Amino acid sequence: MYFFVTLTLIPVPSLIQNIKTQAHFLGSDFNWEIIWQMSKTDLKLRYNGSVLGFLWSLLKPLSLFVVLNTVFTYLFKSATPYYSLQLFVGLAMWNFFVEGTASGISSLVARAGLLTKQPVPKWAVILSSSLTGFMSFFFQLIILAIFFVIQGVTPSISALLLFLLLIFLEYTLIIGIDLILSPLYVRLRDVVQIWEVALIAGFYLVPVIYPLSLIPLGMQKAIMVNPLARLIEISKQSLIFGVFPDISYLLTTVSAVVGVFVLALLVSFRLSRKLTERL
Amino acid sequence: MSDFALQVHNISKSFHLARRKRDSLREYLAHPLTKTEYNTLHALKEISFDVKAGEFLGIIGKNGSGKSTLLRILAGIYEPDQGSILRHGKISPFLELGVGFNPELTGRENVYLSGSILGLRRKQINQIYNHIVSFAQVERFMDQPLKNFSSGMTVRLAFSLAIHSVADILLLDEVLAVGDQEFQNKCFDVFQNFKRDGKTIILVSHSLDVMKDFCDRVIWIDQGKIVAQGSPAEMITRYQA
């Protein structure tokens, strides 16, 4: 619904014009390697000079996990089986979201020197920075797999396939948010601060530290409006307990993510017009 | 194949400069009702010109006359308010040397990163890597971080990478101003070679000598408008007058 309302706000001619101006970047001319090169550089530079280097991208979420696990196991252990495992799945996905959006939102400003000197498409810059977050998520997944083995839980093949889809959806969601907020950040430098505050609150609005079953039904429904909360909850249920969602529930989740992404694309076209001049 | 490399038709570009800078929320909250006031700067006004394939075109003008804005629009970095540009060929803009260079990365890593930004594929860089390094005379340093390079070495590496990534149409913005005399001479040789190879070059510069030595035609821009265009000798006389 909100998707169609927003559609009417966007003048179609300017949208077509925008797609045209972006289109030449998508031709055979476009050098896709630039995205990979930039994200590789980001990854290299992030922990440059630190002794433990890339390990930090694992140590940080792991220590957060240890702290939360120690504190909340006592509260929730009796209420739900495999609490630690649930926490780890949720935390890994939450971290992915936090990292992907944090680096994505500031990406255009961070690469101002490049964007004002070479005709590099903005979406390539956004994509490359979110790819960096994906890489550290990938390494957390390896730890997650080890954790499953230790706990003696073996997810079924179909649960793993579903998880792949869910990761893809989460990545789509992250890019959608980056597409809107990164051009907005160029215009309004408060965006990063607002987003950081929103994430602090947001952490309690997704079922990561608490099991969903523990909260009142009405509140559960409100929380599950958020597509990210759905992705996390479906992952936990299917990977650990082998409980799969209805097809219709899955489809509405997919369409919510796709809706956010399409909306983001449209808004981003509008926000990105004559943006380089402001960098 | 078209005879023209670039056809620029009726380009205008203006910038809106806010009188008060309003890019923080506090500013918006403090003055919620006042609309942001702008000073409009007309950087380019109805610019039209053609560039023939293989031509060496110079653009001359004072600081703030709109030269760099024009170059950025030709490169596709800025979007013009109106007008159109037809590009017959791939453009290599060099508004700055060493775009994307990072001091913490090694020389080699920088070549691959910056090279991809300049439009080179990994395979292509593999092929020309040795040429790039030997032209820049930095063979022994390539596995060291760029911050350990002297500034001269960095510029040589950047320049070498740039000239090895050249497509059909070159846009040059004052990059000639770098380096010592010997290196500058080397650059000029390279430009002569490009000209022989039939590349189209558009050069923005203050230097009248460079215009005289290289350009087939010079366009003089002032306050966003084309004042005159013609042979270098003629333009230089008028420009200096």
Provide a descriptive summary of the structure in words.
The complex is a heterodimer of chains A (about 280) and B (about 240). Chain A is mainly α. Helices cover about 75% and strands about 0% of the residues of chain A. Chain A contains 13 helices and no strands. In chain A, helix 5 runs parallel beside helix 9 (about 155-185) and helix 9 (about 155-185) packs parallel to helix 13. Chain A is globular. With about 240 residues, chain B is an alpha/beta fold. Chain B contains eight helices and nine strands. Chain B has helices spanning about 25-30, 65-75, 105-115, 120-135, 150-165, 180-195, 210-215, 230-240; strands at about 5-20, 40-50, 55-60, 80-85, 90-95, 170-175, 200-205, 215-220, 225-230. In chain B, strand 6 (about 170-175), helix 6 (about 180-195) and strand 7 (about 200-205) form a beta-alpha-beta unit. Chain B is globular and about 60 Å long. Chain B starts with a strand and ends with a helix. The model of chain B has no long low-confidence stretch (mean pLDDT about 85). The interface of A and B includes residues 40, 115, 118, 188 and 189 of A.
Notable characteristics:
heterodimer, A: 279 residues, 13 helices, 75% helix, globular, B: 241 residues, six-stranded mixed beta sheet, three-stranded antiparallel beta sheet, 8 helices, 28% strand
Order of helices and strands of chain B: EHEEHEEHHHEHEHEEH
Average of pLDDT of chain A? 86
Biggest sheet layout of chain A: none
**Largest interface, with Cβ-Cβ < 8 Å?**
A-B, 31 and 32 residues
- Intertermini distance of chain A: 34 Å
SS-based class of chain B? alpha/beta
Query: Could you tell me the radius of gyration of chain A in angstroms?
Result: 20 Å
Helix content of chain B: 25-40%
Largest sheet report of chain B: 6 strands, mixed
Shape of chain B: globular
